[in-house]
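Friendly challenge for the regulars: who can give me the structure tokens for this chain first? No prize, just bragging rights.
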Amino acid sequence: MKSRSTNNYDILYHCTFFLWSIQLKRCSISLKKGRNETCVFHILKKANVWLDEGEKNMRCLRCQNEDPKYFYCDHGTWYCRKCIAFGRVDVGEVPTKVSLKRKKFACCYKLKYPLTPKQSVAVQQIMHYLEQKQDVLVYAACGAGKTELTMEPIQTYLRAGKKVCFAISRRQVVLEIRDRMQEAFPGLHVIAVCQGYTSITDGDLIICTMHQLYRYHQCFDLLIMDEIDAFPYRDNALLEAIAMDACIGEKLMLTATPDEKILEKVEQKEIAMVELFQRPHGYPLIEPTVYCMPVFFQALWLLKFLKEQKKQGIQTLVFLPTITMAEHWYRIVRCTHRCMVFTSKSKDKEAIIDEFHKKKYDFLLCTTILERGITIKGIYVVIVCADHPVFQEASLIQMIGRVGRNIEMPTGKGVFLCRHKTKDIKRCVRAIHMMNQKA
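First reply, four minutes later:
Bragging rights claimed.
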């Protein structure tokens, strides 16, 4: 008669054999029934659920992943599944390094307006730190001219024959920055690499989304990263690893809302920080007006406000927390107003923005997709349901930052409509006030 321990072992073995049979087929394992510990170990190990000590120390040479649960065995070859979306990399395999053309450019950037004294000081500080081979964080207010601060470093590196990339989180902003850089450096071939623009991946100056950096293993001597606090880069260890892998030199990071993680690195002297809180026109940042009222009255207030805006010929960005709310509002007001809805589901996004610039619409009903990277002359901003959890401090600062950016129209109005003041609303108001005081 079999002992109780033997019966328990048989049950465990048969359950394991059955549950992992499908997985074993994918691993091309020959199934031979045996009732000993070696066979069970072989099954579990080959099914990628039991790794020996050596395999536990595997590391992906692209995303630096060392977590065993993200490694998978394919016909005896282990590969990383954490970064599989960017193409397969086997354990021990060095990512392919693309050959990018490098040459010294006698380039000289051109700006519509000269740098202000404070911008010039900020540029000098940035160049000092980069020359010392230090990574730099530029903490600047919305509309302070962060992009203009990067022109001098770009020019310096390109003149030295080094490769430069400007990476941003959002596709729409990539296209806008590409146009601005092409205007500033008319003699260069500036390319955009993002969704819909991947046929050409090498140029004199590369502008791309954070995701597209996977194409450039150890390619860039200067990597400029804008909106490092924005989705999807923020708190994304994979994208951060991809960015670090693409850079062999210095990193220049830009943000108006740094998080605690990056500020801690500044405090620990891991990176240098340059601050700039004054906009080029010298006017203070727009501090939001907060109105607390029930949602129904928020709707009535907004309708009255938009009517007045239409009379004065002032365009408005109306931010709503969800796509459903934005589309619902659009169905209500489109019969009486010249407006359009703009969300991640919208088609022809570039066409909508272009038509808004041309004043075809009185206002846009949008989500946080437009919180960054858009500059429209004389725009006002209203945030409906500003107490919604989706509107965090960084988002609120960025949305209000759309107002008063243009030198020709440096004033405007920003409004929060909410049922009550949340911590994020209060922090946003304090942060903007602090920037105005430091400016």
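Confidence is low (pLDDT under 50) at residues 1-6, 15-54. The chain has three domains: 4-86, 117-276, 289-438. Your move, everyone else.
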